[in-house]
Amino acid sequence: DDRILFQGVFMIFSLVFSFILILLITFLAVGVSGGSLLYILDLPSFAGVLLIFAISIILSGYGKVFCSIFSSHKKFAAFDFQQLKKADEALDFSIKLLFYSAILIPVLILIYTLSNASKSEYFFSHLGLNCAVLLLSLLYLSLLEMILITAKAKIRKSSVLFMAEDFQQSDSKQKADVKTVFKNITGFVLLAAVFTAYGIFSGVYSWGSGNVIFAIIDLPSIMIQIFFVLPLIAISGNFSILFKGLKSAFCGIKIDLKSKNLFQNALKSAMSLNWCSCFATVICSAVCILGDLSDFSKLSANLAVGFIPFFYVACVNLVLLFAEIKVCKAAL
């Protein structure tokens, strides 16, 4: 199939380009946080995560399938539907295995650090650095997860297209439902009103002399999230599908089953990438903060800025989840 062949040719390229892109954006996140690149470089932690993950994927029995996805575009191009399904399962399990593989090392470091912090002045004085090191495994986890999620989104798109004709948006014959558009706009306005009213009546918007609206505005965090997620969505081949899905959801356009599956895949992948990029950005900030605790007066302000991505991702993913629900209900 020409569609699978086309995606197979670019599978290796996508993997390499995803890795390079993620590294560049991570370096940017560290630079924006005011830290050094040396803060996030820890070869033992990275090697430990990869080694534990490799052993786990081999023991799971999916090692051969996992390697075939990235080893040769010819092998991937020759996949039938059952092989694509196995590849999807392999990536699904590999994401879970990577998570458990990566948290073993930081938990071990945390237990060791806390158990010895009170026994020695040396351990206590290096508490911040040790905590920063334990976060590095979680940073590597987030970055590697993004690569796997991107590959999984590409595989699932291939599976849908394998069983259907070339994707064509069905809204060429469907018009937007004005009532649905008005209902959606009204709903978001009400949500914004409730959020604003909560802040006013609870006093959140009047803490001290500051304003929470200005506190949550951080352009670098927004740009880093965009630089992380949108290129990876494009690499997975779901960029246009994502926005067509959003359009279909908010305009109330009826879609067929194939479009529903494509839209769901794009929306779920975007949500997963949002969370991974958010954790990676927050961890980069936390590592830079813990790496230099010489001035405790700036600690709370730095932590506040570091946690801003969580707010953005929660808002964006709420919209994407709403869109996924609408897509499911709109399927013919």
Q: What oligomeric state is this? A: single chain
The largest sheet, given as strand count, sense and whether it forms a barrel, is: none
Tally of DSSP helical segments:
15
Strand residues, percent: under 5%
How many beta-strand runs? 0
First-residue to last-residue Cα separation:
27 Å
Q: What is the arithmetic mean of pLDDT?
A: 79
What is the rounded Rg?
22 Å
Helix content: over 70%
Order of SSEs: HHHHHHHHHHHHHHH
- The best one-word shape is flat
Helix and strand content put the structural class at mainly alpha
What low-confidence regions span 5 or more consecutive residues with pLDDT below 50?
Answer: 1-9, 166-172
Task: Describe this entry's structure for a reader.
- There is one protein chain.
- The protein has 332 residues and is an all-alpha fold.
- 80% of the residues lie in helices and 0% in strands.
- α4 (63-71) crosses α6 and α12 crosses α15.
- It is flat and about 70 Å long.
- Residues 1-9 and 166-172 have low confidence and may be disordered.
Question: How would you summarize the topology of this molecule?
Answer:
Layout: H1 2-9, H2 11-32, H3 43-59, H4 63-71, H5 73-77, H6 81-117, H7 121-125, H8 127-162, H9 178-202, H10 212-215, H11 219-235, H12 239-251, H13 257-291, H14 299-306, H15 308-330
Helix pairs in contact: 2-8, 2-11, 3-6, 4-6, 6-8, 8-13, 11-13, 12-13, 12-15, 13-14, 13-15
